């Protein structure tokens, strides 16, 4: 059951996973697949009503699912820290944390440069920086959940766009020149670079946590089934998206590589996974050279430390292993 074949999610009973941005899209379907396999799912999102609707949909579609919700706005460092604190509090006497999918993201980026409340460029803050902060906040909990049979994982959401004119994110705040496409691509190059750098640093520090990068191919709502409160494309969107059928899949199919990156015991930290171009299924792939560049990886990592004021507690996480 490896490179390139169809992957069945193995039983996940007893495992707990957190997924950011799980009220819609890939995050919702990743949650559903993991819940179906028996995992306990912490669905998170920034909006209580949207999150509640997705929670209800999941419970209706997966009878007996074990799922809870957590308000977490990745573009707001205060929200990330308080969500992580409440998660740690709950984990202390209740559950383990076997993995996290850093999924939340802005795909349809604003035309004009937009800032978060704390003055950071919105797309980079949502897609990359917020997850950098969340990773720092959850690292010790993840490491403490390691067992001889399971190494907890974090999965970062990369993108094929990183191969198309890969912007080298030297100006992560896009202060010099902004474009919607550039904001997206450079944030995804940064996400991939962070994912690979995290794995290298985890290994160096001997922390029992792995970091894997995965991408969904091109997955769109109009090719995805209608689920009330989760995916309700208009007829016009369905029509438009149907024109892209040769190159696009559903969000449900797109979620396959992401879930596999989280749970396939044969995958190792530092790998890059995505859908096969032909014939379905998922496979290990080669990421863009830019996101692998050690100099860039260090640069992005340090920039995130500087912008967020967070450093990952590698030494504490290594000491905390059981
Ligand atoms: N679809 C693709 O073809 C594709 C390709 C490559 C990579 N990706 C990546 O996959 C991830 C999910 O994409 P998708 O296609 O599923 O997009 P989507 O359908 O637009 O869903 C995005 C999810 O992220 C959430 N989100 C956005 N900003 C947030 C914030 N500040 N805090 C918390 N949650 C937030 C959204 O919540 P709201 O409902 O509150 O907005 C939603 O749940 C993204 O990281 C994207 O870059 C997607």
TrEMBL record:
Residues 15-184 form the Ketoreductase domain. It comes from the Bacteria. This is 3beta-hydroxysteroid 3-dehydrogenase. InterPro entries: Ergosterol_Biosynth_ERG27, KR_dom, NAD(P)-bd_dom_sf, SDR_fam. Its EC number is 1.1.1.270. Pathway: Steroid biosynthesis; zymosterol biosynthesis; zymosterol from lanosterol: step 5/6. GO terms for molecular function: 3-beta-hydroxysteroid 3-dehydrogenase (NADP+) activity. It comes from Microbacterium sorbitolivorans. It holds the Pfam family adh_short.
């Amino acid at each position: 059951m490896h490179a390139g074949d169809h992957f069945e999610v193995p039983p996940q009973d007893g495992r707990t996973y957190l997924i950011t941005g799980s009220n819609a899209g890939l995050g919702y379907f990743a949650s559903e697949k993991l819940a179906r396999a028996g995992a306990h799912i912490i669905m998170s999102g920034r909006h209580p009503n949207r999150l509640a609707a997705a929670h209800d949909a999941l419970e209706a579609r997966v009878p007996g699912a074990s799922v809870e919700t957590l308000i977490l706005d990745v573009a707001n460092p205060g929200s990330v820290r308080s969500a992580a604190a409440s998660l740690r509090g709950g984990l202390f006497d209740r559950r383990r944390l076997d993995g996290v999918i850093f999924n939340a993201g802005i795909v349809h980026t604003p035309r004009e440069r937009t800032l978060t409340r704390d003055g950071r460029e919105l797309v980079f803050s949502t897609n990359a920086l917020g997850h950098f902060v969340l990773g720092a906040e959850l690292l010790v909990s993840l490491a403490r959940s390691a067992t001889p049979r399971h190494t907890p994982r974090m999965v970062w959401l990369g993108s094929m766009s990183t191969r198309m004119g890969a912007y080298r994110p030297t100006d992560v705040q896009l202060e010099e020149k902004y474009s919607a496409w550039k904001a997206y691509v450079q944030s995804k190059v940064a996400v991939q670079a962070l994912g690979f750098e995290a794995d290298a640093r985890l290994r160096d520090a001997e922390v029992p946590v792995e970091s894997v990068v995965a991408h969904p191919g091109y997955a769109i709502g109009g090719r995805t089934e209608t689920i009330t409160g989760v995916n309700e494309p208009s007829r016009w969107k369905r029509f438009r998206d149907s024109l892209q059928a040769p190159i696009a899949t559903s969000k449900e199919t797109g979620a396959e590589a992401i879930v596999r990156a989280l749970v396939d015991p044969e995958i190792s930290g530092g790998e890059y996974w995505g859908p096969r171009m032909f014939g379905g299924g998922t496979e290990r792939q080669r990421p863009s050279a830019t996101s692998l560049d050690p100099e860039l990886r260090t640069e992005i990592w340090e920039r995130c430390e500087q912008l967020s004021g967070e450093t990952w507690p590698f030494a504490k996480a290594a000491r905390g292993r059981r």
